[in-house]
Amino acid sequence: MADTKTPAGRAVHPAVGSSSGPLNRRRTRKQVRATAGSGRMAALLVSPTLLVLTIVVLYPTLMALNESLYGAKGLDPKTGFISDTEPFVGLRNYADILGQAGERFWNAFWNTTFFTVVTVALETLIGVAMALIMHKAFRGRGLVRAGILVPWAVPTAISGLLWRWIFNSDGIANALIGHQVLWTTEGFHAKVAVIVAEVWKTAPFIGLLVLAGLQVIPKEVYEAARIDGASAPRQFWHITLPLVKPALLVAMLFRCMDALRMFDLPYILIGAQKHSVETLSMLAQHEASNVRFGPASAYSVLLFLYVFLIALTFVRLLGADLIGDVGADTRKRKGRRLRIPAPRRKEVTA
Amino acid sequence: MTLTEKWRGGLLYAGVFAVVAYCLAPFYWMLVSSLRRTSDIFDTSLLPSSVSFENYRAVFDPAQGFGRALLNSLIVAGITTVLALLLATFTAYAMARLEFRFKRLILTLIIATSMFPVVSIVVPLLKLFTDISWINTYQAMIVPSMSFALPLAVWNLTTFFRQMPDELEHAAMVDGCTRGQAFRKVIIPLAAPGIFTTAIITFIAAWNEFLIALSMTNKPAMQTAPVAISKFTGATTYETPFGSQMAAGVLVTIPLVVMVLLFQRRIVAGLTAGAAK
To answer: Looking at A16-20, A161-165, B98-102, B217-221, which range is the least confident one?
Structure first.
């Protein structure tokens, strides 16, 4: 992350890694030639993507914002006919969600939050454990890597069906624990079923990202620690964990954002409109599929704001480790990256 | 080798075994269940007492329309992948090689859209597509899918382009190529493995999509495979056809698993791109 130290606006040429003196000067000259007139070319190359994203993301978001201010088509109080247009209701959809239909919204809100916190915590624990094992194992690494990709490749919808079958009342889960639990009916056990299925599918993903982080830690650091007499747990806490932190944080951010929009798994594993597992995505989708676009949009706007807030908090709390990595040069470097000092971090995230 | 070292080695392989078992056991259960007969579907033995392809025959019963669903999935995921890659290749090249203002900001914004809750765009687009009667069309599934496929492809490709040495183009340009020619004749052929990996990752993401396909279709003939399987019906309404669901699940997953096994090295490189470096 050496070059995240330069202010965000004036990034160095991305293809050049380290920053020793003479190299630096040579680079500057090269850069002038190589990037002459590249502004227009960049605009040409980047604009199609931006245009498509504007159409498929920005425009719908603004539409949802607008739509959330309108009510359902209904009887026009003046004429008594069913009107073709949706009446403007201002913030009433939001007031209803937080007031009248509040119970359902807050339930979905807490379900979403609960699933996110619990699954990401469990995934992180299991993922880190997996990564440590894979990192130590030399024989059979290919086999493990192939195996670990299988849960990732199984479509979430299919994994929902698969776990529905496992958690069936006569299924293997009950046979293994020797109890009759009706997992897929309303209740706390339904939450457990969703969490188990979600963690199974995504913990390997965290494992992969953390493993990649482990592999760039130089062996010398551990050797030095061993010579200094650090025990294995101390090495883990004081070397491994701080050094994989950036990779782990990126993985956790991604997982959080993904868990907050959870839809497929509870929808298929337990079902639609189930109080104990209904997430915000399910709530919004259910309203929309019943042509109540006003409330549906209001729900989706609230979900969007929630996701945005969480992402912002992540970036603010955890610094440039996250976004800095995304924007900065992500080339593999020989040297170990240095942690960015705190004041610099603000500069990068700002 | 001392005794403690032996113990440690044994423990490590127990750990490796646990990881592999954790990842594969549920998948194995799907495979085994799909090979059971309907009469012993509730068996809990680890091997089917007698292997039967009854469930697979049931999946391809014309009444289920599963073949059509597979075709729909292939069309939607295929076109999404091709479009996303086409746009992303140019953008990623600019991100990796050119200097321009707001580059960081633009790349961050593109990546940020991939974290966007899909339902937030499905709701307004569902209304829009209802108004212009796009419901039950392929484009109604492809257009929203671009919202996650395109950022994914841009991010992966940017990392791949950055890993290629700058000197390649400089050499080409010294030899008289324009930047466009250097891109076409040098970079693209050399980046082919990266583009291919990105294609696989994007395709898997699009193939696995459920929410958009569920919302934008209501005719069985237009459903994609994941949606169709989730709606499989048994002989009676109250009986879930677990056997044929598992068989269909295996059929939908096997192509992905084969791809993953063949290209695991590349896929891991693609998935972890940017996260650890």
So the answer is: A16-20
Q: Does B213 touch chain A (CB under 8 A)?
A: no
Contact B253 A155 (CB under 8 A): yes
Using the Cβ of A232 and the Cβ atoms of chain B, whether some distance falls under 8 Å is answered with: no
> Could you tell me the CATH number of the domain that includes residue B225?
1.10.3720.10
Res. B76: pLDDT tops 80: yes
Q: Would you say residue A37 has pLDDT above 70?
A: no
B12 bridge partner residues: none
> Tokens representing B104?
């960081």
Whole domain around residue B22: which residue ranges? Answer: 3-55
User: In b/e form, how buried is each residue of A41-59, taking b as 16+ CB within 10 angstroms?
Assistant: bbeebbeebbebbeebbee
Please state the domain count of chain B. 2
Which residues of B, range 52-81, sit inside 8 Å of A by Cβ? none
pLDDT bracket for residue A160 (50, 70, 90): very high
Closest chain B residue to A175, measured at CA: B44
Chain A within 8 Å of B20 (Cβ-Cβ)? yes
Nearest chain B residue to A209 by CA: give it.
B272
Spatial distance between the Cα atoms of A160 and A168, rounded to a whole number of angstroms: 12
- By three-state DSSP, how is residue A342 classified? helix
Choice among A248-252, B18-22, B195-199 with the minimum mean pLDDT: A248-252
Q: Which residue has the tokens 């009107």?
A: A83
Asked if B150 lies within 8 A of A34 by C-beta distance, the reply is no
The alpha-carbon gap from B49 to the nearest alpha carbon of chain A, in Å, equals 16
Note every long-range contact of A115-121, with CB atoms under 8 Å and residues 24 or more positions apart, other chains counting.
Answer: A115/A191, A115/A194, A115/A195, A115/A198, A115/A259, A115/A262, A115/A266, A115/A279, A116/A256, A116/A259, A116/A260, A116/A262, A118/A195, A119/A195, A119/A198, A119/A199, A119/A202, A119/A255, A119/A259, A120/A252, A120/A255, A120/A256, A120/A259
Q: Are A124 and A202 in contact (CB under 8 A)?
A: no
Are residues B201 and B140 located together in one domain of the fold?
A: yes
How far is Cα B74 from Cα B225, in angstroms, rounded to an integer?
A: 9
Instruction: State how far residue B79 is from chain A, nearest Cα, in angstroms.
Output: 15
Domains of chain A with bracketed CATH:
105-318 (1.10.3720.10)
Same domain, B190 and B160: yes
Is B100–A38 a contact, with Cβ atoms under 8 angstroms apart?
Answer: yes
- Assess: ipTM above 0.95: no
Distances (CA, A) of A267 to A5, A155, A158, A285: 45, 14, 12, 11
What is the amino acid identity at position A95?
A
Q: Does A246 touch chain B (CB under 8 A)?
A: yes
Residues B135 and B105 grouped into a single domain: yes
For A90-148, write each residue's pLDDT tens digit.
788 888 888 776 888 999 999 999 999 999 999 999 999 999 988 887 777 778 888 88
- Whether residues B128 and B28 share a domain: the answer is no
Q: Does B118 touch chain A (CB under 8 A)?
A: yes
Closest Cβ opposite residue A166 in set B29, B101, B111:
B29
